[in-house]
Amino acid sequence: MAHRTAIISGASIAGLSTAYWLRRTGWDVTVIERAAEFRDGGQNVDIRGVARDVLRRMDLFDAVKARNTTETGAVLVDERGVVTVELPSDGAGGATAELEILRGDLARTILDHLPPGVSFVYGDTVSTVNDDAEGVTVTTEKGQLLSADLFVIAEGVRSRTRPRSSTKTTSTSETSTSPWSSEPSHEPTAMTTVGGGTTPFADARFTFDPTRMAPSARSSPTLPAMTSSV
């Protein structure tokens, strides 16, 4: 049986997780990332529910826990710095997750534990996508021509590649978050693919610690909604 091949656009949490599972099941995987190198940084990610089960199946639970932010709760303060509301962790289902990690640390942990054989193309992006009965052909901005059986777009809601795909894409919606909480859907979401239907993945939950904000932002009664994606 010939090796099955896959191209993934995006080397963050979703892309790296997809690369992990495809490679683990025998696929030859190439990941394309527009950044010149792996991107660190990002806000806190609360790992809850099915995501904890996924980490255990990837044998990454302990590795992620070792990079926990150690945050035990969050507080809201007024303009004088007086605490007005306290949100303790209260276990796995509390306002602050028992297992919380920075986005970059989570992505780095997955990257460091990828099965051998995943190839990366940094500093390039997908320019065109052609899908036919033989598979998928991807041309990058720098002129590379790559062919595969499966093409996965793992770029978040502001994907530049998704509109360039030759098939109908799934609908997307932005996740609005506030400094107090965020409520993305807990149901599996469809990630657009070409040549292979859809690949399910779980949304991550983001939380923001008001104590880390500038004093002027802390005292504001309302703040603009922010958009987050992984």
In short:
By secondary structure, this protein is an alpha+beta fold.
Give the helices and strands as they follow along the chain: EHEEHHEEEHEEEEEEEEEHE
Mean pLDDT: 73
CATH class category: Alpha Beta
Distance N to C terminus: 35 Å
Shape designation: elongated
Task: Give Rg in angstroms.
Answer: 19 Å
Q: What kind of sheet is the major sheet?
A: 6 strands, mixed
Number of domains: 1
Output the number of helix runs. Answer: 5
Secondary-structure-based class equals alpha+beta
As a percent range, the share of strand residues is 25-35%
What attributes does this structure have?
230 residues; alpha+beta; FAD/NAD(P)-binding domain; six-stranded mixed sheet; disordered C terminus
Describe, in plain words, how this protein is organized in 3D.
- The protein has a single domain, classed as FAD/NAD(P)-binding domain.
- Strand 9 and strand 10 form a beta hairpin.
- Helices cover 17% and strands 30% of the residues.
- The C terminus is likely disordered.
- With 230 residues, it is of the alpha+beta class.
